[in-house]
Predict the structure.
Amino acid sequence: MAIDFIDDSAGLSDVPGFRVGAAGCDIRNKKLDRLDLTLIVADQPCNAAGVFTTNDVKAAPVRYSQNILLLSQGKIRGVVANSGNANACTSVQGDADAQLMAEISAQAVGAPTEAFLVCSTGRIGELLPMTKVAQGISTASKNLSNKATEGRRAAESILTSDTRPKTATASFVWQGKKVTVAGFAKGAGMIEPNMATMLAFVATDADVNAAYLKKSLLSATQQSFNCVSVDGDMSTNDTVILMASGVSKVVVDEKADVDLQKLFQLAVDKICFALAEKIVGDGEKITKVVSVEIQGARTREDAEKIARAIGNSLLVKSSWFGEDPNWGRLADAAGYARTGLDEAKLDIHYNDVPAVIKGVPIPENKPKWKEVVKARQFKVRINLNLGSAQFRLLASDLTDGYVNYNKSE
Amino acid sequence: MAIDFIDDSAGLSDVPGFRVGAAGCDIRNKKLDRLDLTLIVADQPCNAAGVFTTNDVKAAPVRYSQNILLLSQGKIRGVVANSGNANACTSVQGDADAQLMAEISAQAVGAPTEAFLVCSTGRIGELLPMTKVAQGISTASKNLSNKATEGRRAAESILTSDTRPKTATASFVWQGKKVTVAGFAKGAGMIEPNMATMLAFVATDADVNAAYLKKSLLSATQQSFNCVSVDGDMSTNDTVILMASGVSKVVVDEKADVDLQKLFQLAVDKICFALAEKIVGDGEKITKVVSVEIQGARTREDAEKIARAIGNSLLVKSSWFGEDPNWGRLADAAGYARTGLDEAKLDIHYNDVPAVIKGVPIPENKPKWKEVVKARQFKVRINLNLGSAQFRLLASDLTDGYVNYNKSE
């Protein structure tokens, strides 16, 4: 049951049956020499599943892609994605533009319009410069390739305020055949809950039907993209797509060997978690990645509420930035999640250093936990001692850099 | 129906039947020459009502005071309050210390222990320096007076990271008799929802029973302290107390003249709103006070959810700080409140300048709304056009100063 894992891989180019092509078409209108558009194309029609933002305000490409997946029952040829403009809050013209992006992309590879999904990320409330976008799609289609260099360019093209591309590849061997799962993603700001301002594209060469892909993706997303938080803001454009080319000839479905199903899910989980972790680690101007682990809750929902209250508390996040661990702020935030916790049962640890046991502070340990929080990554573990449910949230600190970065557009 | 209003008044000393006394007893252990304790004492037993934090983690003085109000059926002699230490997350010793504060205070004025309420604000998780506190209470009791100077000192003594005292006085004349309602408060950080890290003491010389006071206070709180947000953090210590000495001999109860009841409520509302406004305006290192007004919602709850999502969004708050109004971030935050809004019906205004009408952006107005947000105070008005319910939240921006201020304790 061994899975090979490559961090910072070539991303989708690692997956047989898919090609990618990137282009720079100045969507930001800033004359930067910057990649901002990418095509992902399957050699043959492939199966696909998607998970999308649950924001009431959904960007046009989100509405479009959700509809396409429904109509095509998950059979697509590819995806066109751009950065620099979210095509969100753009009214009916936005819908028309999303469809036009699909049309042009499909034409470029000789597929029907309804075979393309569309993703956008970037600024909200402005119309896409469609002439530039069309040019970008044309260039990207000429660049389509399965070379690692193009895979890396694709990963670069979807970035916004990210500082680096995010890719990962997992593979395993089943009865002599190699199966690959790989992906690339972008994140940076507005991360939480439920995949905010993030796009992720994951593909496999396993032969998997759309319904199974959906189930597998939902499960992986629950434990990865939905368990990270940078600023508590949820975007209009979040999208995770999982595609399967089938060219490995390894069929993964409900009737497949249980070990194979497990291996496949493990590989998808691993890729999604690796990408989610990279997203938090590259949050806008952050300096800390903190694993907020709530244990001993009555329900998973309670544990999640508390983890999010802590992970999104400005006071908690500011104190992480200052490396001045204030467990009182943790207890306060846990309390205002209002799950009915009992203060007298609360245990709080920084990594393995107890700060509070059964509601009683242990101030003599302060020098030890002050050491813990000097690391870039550490754990905050709270046991409610009320049950056995738990939730883990990967959160970041809040810095003056974040505020200054986001104070203008 | 005229109400006289004095801003930045002497606070509680304006109310016949009450005396206050402040003291500095170095609770912070920093050898600062700083007031940090206050006594509020009624000349005779008075009626009182309180509203407290709904945090699961309640500070010892909150639990203590809630209990006292219950046992005494709202008949008390006074309140002892300190800043610099919240006596929160202090386990059983904290409970004992809160009770001891009441005991010492009661003894100092010759009242029974159960006649005193206790309030604390400041650092969480450390035990109160009780020797100092006892000394402070002794000094404060000697300072008890109805002079304006002592009222101002009392207002100063409860401050934490506030930059200035917060007081207000309202009065009206009923059938030749003057009725006064006055108060003082502290706020600064951790403000929201439901009165976070804030203490407010309001008193009147009207003759009002405890049940009526409770009703009146709840109503005023809903429209004031519960409608402000600085950072979305809710504290363990929030308390608002309303006391009535009755010395004006004007009886306000359910059987009183309707006009008198209205006048009294208006005065209480005015004081609570004035204090709440001062709290937001003095939020930690803020530069903007923004009135987030959500209209046309199906229910008040929906409107409130959207107002809070906007008022607590790091991206929105950062953009206010930068005076770079990004209505896209407003729409995004409104959407993730997930009330089922319809983007195509959305109107967004900065003061009276439309930015979006029925979901369609009006970019040509951008220069105008860029002007609006240069002011220290402005309105963001969103009409959902789905119903007639509304909610108004007074919120602040998020600054690099806030982060740097809170990064260490």
Q: What stands out?
A: Residues 235 and 249 of chain B are 37 Å apart (CA to CA).
